[in-house]
Amino acid sequence: MRLMPPPLIVQDGGEGIFGASGETPEDSRLEVYYATNRLPIGPRDNRIYTIAPDRALHFGTAGLRVGNEGTTWAQLYEWSTGGPTSDRPFINLERMREEASQEPDAPLDPETADWLGRIDGTLARRPGSDVIVYVHGANTTVERAAGQAAQLWHFTGQNAVVVLFAWPTAENFLRYPSDIETAFGGAPHLADLIGLLATHTRARKVDVFTYSAGGTVGSAALGELGRERPGIAARLGNVYHAAPDADFRDFVDDLAAYAPRAGSVTAAINLNDSALRLAQVMNRASRAGRPDLRELSETQTRTLLGAVSRGELDVVQVSPETIPTLSRTSHTFWYDDPWVSGDVLVTLLFGLPPGARMLDAREAPGGAAYFTFAPDFADRIPTLRRHLLAEFAPRPAAEAP
Question: What is the pTM of this model?
Fold first, then answer.
């Protein structure tokens, strides 16, 4: 996993975001919280997580390093705020330290409470912050998933608290169908994680960011919360699905259950996405990130169009015709393309509607609204950045309760 190109919002003028948390790192090391329903092996202070699912949910912290041993924060800062270059450093997973585990439906144990307390302590230094839960895609190693979550946290300027949810994948493209099966098995664990964060931390809201087949995990989990735990669903903040590899019909049904309670829901799609084209063939159904409206029933169509018209769902079309550096068939656009990754950050950190994020509104045949990046999007960034930097002004730490 290489460090992704700097999001446009932090390039050449957005450096203030990296100092806004009031904390200056000592080196190029990053740390994120994690939860996983993968089966663990090895000592707890240096866990290895297998591809097999486990009944329990395990909690801990993942330590990573950007670049070689001895890489300084100044070097990482330069990589993170300059323009994109072909020479990007690797992100190395140094260790995963498991701190607690919890069986389904078991009462909260002291170790899990301590882990949640650490998250709460981090939030206390960032008053008014959300927790962002990152859900990775299929065919993904723990190392790669942790790297994606860590750089998401890093490019927020460490102004957010990011929790990786690492669900079991076979880590082999040829076993993709089994990944989709385990995705559904991971959904109840993700719902439980969201419930713990919403109940036992001071997070203003719990944001959920899914990528690819993580959209199957996330959609099913959020749908479960909306139907069975509406009080927890009401604590949802910004939900962002990037290239969601989820059955389109299931996605719409789940959306109806949780979207009215969430702060915002965004689906970023590329209609030329080659990975989702193949996934559609293998699943014999279109994917939410490359949808076919003809598959929906009349009721589902009304549900989808109603969610769009009420502003409960924002559809962002990621189009290579207007984004100069985007590969036409890109599936990895959320971290490969600086325009899109910047929009992800602004959505998760601020919950701004698409127009305020400088996206243009369009209308699909039939009247449904969607949003897209205009060719002059880069020229609009300085105006957006000035507004965001004012919001990023360091705030005094909150007193612990």
Answer: 0.95
